[in-house]
Amino acid sequence: MSSERRFSQKEIAAIFNRASRAQEKVSAEAAQEEGLTLADLHLIALETGISPDLITQAVLAVDEAPEEPKPETFLGLQLSISKTVNLDNPLTDADWDKLVVGFRNTFRAKGKVTREGSLREWSNGNLRIMAEPTAKGHRLHMQSLKGSTQGAIWTSLSFILAALFVFASSLFSGGLEGGIIVLSVVFAMAGLLSGGFSTLQLSQWRFDRMEHFESIAAQAQQLTSNRTAAEKRSEKQVAQAVQGDKSKLAQIQQSTDSPEADQPNDVRGPSGLLDGVDDEEAEDITPPSKTRDRDR
Questions:
Q1: Which end of the chain is more exposed for a tag (fewer CB within 10 A), N or C?
Q2: d(CA 120, CA 122)
Q3: At what angle do helices 178-256 and 148-173 cross, to 10 degrees?
Q4: Paired sense of beta strands 119-124 and 112-116, if any
Q5: Average pLDDT of the residues in 12-37
Q6: In this predicted model, which residue has the larger pLDDT, 106 or 56?
Q7: Interatomic CA distance for residues 67 and 69, integer angstroms
Q8: Where are the alpha helices (DSSP H) in the chain?
Q9: Are 95 and 224 contacting, i.e. CB atoms less than 8 angstroms apart?
Q10: 77: closest CA among 187, 141, 154, 185?
């Protein structure tokens, strides 16, 4: 009898339970440090009863989903705005040139056009519009930052702090007079009005910029869709032409294979000449005996 240890059902369940938890911990640490491959995701999907095809489709959707950068904020105010749009077809150089003309008309600025490999960019200060290739076409990313708002907010805070400083200094010095109070109120009101006006300007700027970005995205999508429609019409015309040529070839082949085309051409007519042969050619093929008689 073998002396090798045998485990009971309870011990087996406990062993596999502990081992599975350890494996899950190792897998989680590896995923956090190195990530998982598509094959790893398929394996996990099979273990959880999910179709691997659905995982593949989800991966493609994640890759194509535009990633909006985190907006920049200052004291709770959003100073930046961005928009990303995926184009189903690539942008040609002509399409990009048309978009640049639209950028200049929309923002009333010439801007700067740069290109690095397949990456294109138009920029004007804190305003940037970039086009990068994707698996299907191109991705247009637009972003802008209103940097002047931060300075305006600091100015407003400076007025408010100055009002508080004047008021506090006069209060602790025991010389709180009417003029000091009025001056403090003026400083505070100036700061509040300046801050409120800057906030309203920022809100209107975000609204206008988003409208501009929406218009540019629609223009880019229209350019690529129009080119696609034209290419489809051209392909249809080519297909129709090819089909027409095939029909003509079929007609020619049919006429060639018809019984009339198989009739011999050396059938003599009533005049004794070969049908379909000119008179001069008939004289050349007259039998030699008749030719000698005629020469005599």
A1: N
A2: 7
A3: 170
A4: antiparallel
A5: 68
A6: 106
A7: 6
A8: 9-33, 38-48, 52-64, 93-107, 148-173, 178-256, 279-284, 288-295
A9: yes
A10: 154
Strands 77-78 vs 73-74: parallel, antiparallel or unpaired: antiparallel
**Residue for token digits 């273990």?**
47
Return d(Cα 183, Cα 202) in angstroms, integer.
29
Phi and psi at 34, nearest 5°, equal -110, -15
Alpha carbon distance 121, 111 (integer Å)? 10
Burial pattern 168-198, b for ≥16 Cβ within 10 A else e, equals: eebeeeeeeeeebeebbeebbebbeebbeeb
- Written as six digits, the tokens of 251 are 């007609």
In the numeric block, which tokens belong to residue 252?
A: 């020619």
Q: Would you tell me how many other CB atoms lie within 10 Å of the CB of residue 202? A: 20
**CA–CA separation, 206 vs 144, rounded Å?**
9
pLDDT at residue 247 greater than cutoff 90: no
Which tokens belong to 15? Answer: 């062993």
Residue appearing with tokens 């991966």: 59
Q: What region does 114 belong to: left with phi over 0, alpha with psi -120 to 50, or beta?
A: beta
Q: Is 180 in contact with 167 (CB distance < 8 Å)?
A: yes
**pLDDT by residue (tens digit) across 265-286?**
444 444 444 444 444 333 444 4
How is residue 207 written in tokens?
């609204």
Alpha carbon dihedral 129, 132, 134, 136, in 10-degree steps, equals 70
* C-alpha distances in Å from residue 261, one per residue of 1, 248, 264: 97, 17, 8
Q: What are phi and psi of 226, to 5 degrees?
A: -65, -40
Q: What's the whole-model pTM score? A: 0.54
